[in-house]
UniProtKB/TrEMBL annotation:
Single GO biological process annotation from the record: response to stress
TM annotation in the entry: none
Residue ranges that the Swiss-Prot or TrEMBL entry lists as coiled coil: none
Designated name of the protein: MarR family transcriptional regulator
GO molecular function, one term: DNA-binding transcription factor activity
Taxonomic lineage from the root: Bacteria, Bacillati, Actinomycetota, Actinomycetes, Catenulisporales
Superkingdom as given in the UniProt entry: Bacteria
Pfam family, one: MarR_2
Length: 163
């Protein structure tokens, strides 16, 4: 409840409400969670014709050995369902950036492989995207606060996924 108005039985639930400082911090974080992804996605769409999740998927493949990851690992790393990732990779396949193939180590799994055109797209896209990330986030915080923010974000994600 964002309002200071509390229900009649508020005394028995007093520990549920956020104090003013916590509420202010939560509302700031909420705005960030909405605005930052939209800003990053907008920049990538304008400059590269990619969505943020498409960029993240291709970035994960760029960092993987042999530019290849199992789809299940890629889904976990990008925080999307395997079904959504499958649709996303199909779009990237259509554009010639990625291909899917059976995992040679275990044919029950499917790998996503970044193709030369996808690698070129990332090499063209990454400098502008990194500059934008720097302008919005990295250069806006002292290094120790940035690292603390990353650690705090990991703690929250760990709680969400049940680690």
């Amino acid at each position: 409840m964002a309002s200071t108005e509390q229900p009649a039985n508020a005394d028995e639930h007093a520990d549920l409400w956020l104090d003013p400082g916590d509420l202010t911090a939560w509302m700031s974080l909420s705005r960030l969670m909405i605005r930052l992804p939209a800003a990053l996605d907008g920049q990538l769409q304008r400059d590269a014709g990619l969505s943020m999740i498409e960029y993240m998927t291709m970035a994960m493949l760029c960092d993987a050995p042999d530019l290849t990851l199992r789809m299940s690992v890629l889904a976990e790393e990008t925080s999307v369902s395997l079904s959504r990732l499958s649709h996303l990779v199909k779009r990237l396949e259509t554009r010639g950036y990625v291909r899917r193939e059976p995992d040679p180590a275990d044919g029950r799994f499917t790998n996503a492989v970044l193709l030369p055109a996808g690698l070129r797209k990332m090499q063209e896209t990454a400098p502008g995207h990194v500059a934008y990330v720097r302008r919005l986030v990295v250069d806006n915080l002292p290094v120790e606060r940035l690292h603390r923010l990353g650690e705090d974000a990991d703690r929250i994600v760990d709680r969400i996924v049940g680690r």
